């Protein structure tokens, strides 16, 4: 894209500046002389050409989400984190957050391309009650998927829900 070109005179707010490079498809950028160093730094960042990538027009991922791998990772993390724990309502909030972050990190390490993930972890005390969990999504049946992993002890029940949404 950049080529060595003869010197070009580029107008710079009342002065003429010399340029040795010509970029095809871009017009010369006018620079503003600022007395404030912060403004000069912002102006130099704004004047840099932005890189634009061409569309690939690919509608399928190279590496699709494999449910069983995600389920195994989530199940292993739930078991390792909650194996010896008793239910405590006060600490459950921070425990859910740390488990969901760990599951998200583990799923991202599996390198499924072009997917965004949502991880939700619920820890509920066993008190002879029923529980229903519902969620709604705008869904692409061919590419999007979800996985749930469960872990149960004598005092609580834990549910991890991992949603993988294809991102074009």
Description:
With 168 residues, the chain is of the alpha+beta class. Helices cover 27% and strands 30% of the residues. The radius of gyration is 27 Å and the shape is extended. It starts with a strand and ends with a strand.
Arrangement of strands in the largest sheet? 3-5-4
Number of helices, where a helix is a run of at least 4 consecutive DSSP H or I residues = 3
| Structural class assignment | alpha+beta
Low-confidence stretches: none
Strand content is 25-35%
Give, in order, the helices and strands.
EEHHHEEE
Helix content: 25-40%
Radius of gyration equals: 27 Å
List the helices and strands and how they pair.
Layout: E1 2-12, E2 15-23, H1 37-46, H2 67-82, H3 89-108, E3 115-125, E4 145-152, E5 156-166
Antiparallel strand pairs: 1-2, 3-5, 4-5
Helix pairs in contact: 2-3
Question: What are its keywords?
Answer:
168 residues; alpha+beta; 3-stranded antiparallel beta sheet; two-stranded antiparallel sheet; 27% helix; extended
Summarize it.
With 168 residues, this protein is α+β, with helices and mostly antiparallel strands.
